[in-house]
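Each field is set out as follows.
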Amino acid sequence: MSKKLTDQDNTGIPDDPLTGHQYDGIEEFDNPLPGWWKWIFVLCILFSIPYTLFYHGGAEGRSIEEGYEVALADNLRLQFAEIGELKADRANVIKFLYKPNMLSIGKAVFKSNCTSCHGSDGGGLVGPNLTDEEYKNVKDIGDFINVLENGAGAGAMPAWKNRLSTNEIVMVSSYVASLRGTVPASAKAPQGNKIAPWPPAPAEESEEEAEESEEEPEEAATGDDTNEEVSSDEPETPEL
């Protein structure tokens, strides 16, 4: 028979250590954590070290700045694929000066590389103001290419020939030229000499119009040949 427990039998206190806390007469045992739980805690600490280094310590391609540069480079490659490899010359600077959709490329490159000296809006910081009518190293719009590629001011303006692609240099030149006459938030005092206005937009035939004008003579010639062949194949009607 099983023995029925009474209140007198339920007076024994376990030998397990107590924490010393009491809640409404209820005491708390000081039991150790399970071994598996401790090992999970230790493994989490060990895992956090490489995790922190990889995701928050500047691992390659993981920082916000690097992610932006990668996205910018991908976008530039897509847009440059449409226009091909450009020649760094005056004509292209003028050409893209009047193409607002392409100026956004030069603006992106300018924001990434030039704002520390010229300000985000070209008003000038350490470098000169790019929005007024006076220039230190530019007398003609084509001079932007030379200044960007080779630098100026005995190193004050660094050379970018080995840092930027030819397309980027052309686009930045056009964008900087487009800043002329704009109103920056904080404009530095003019430096240099006043120069003539930029040349007007070139009067060039669009590619579609050029292709159409080339196709029209070919179609006309093809049509004439066809008519001649058809007329030669028709049987002659005898005279009555």
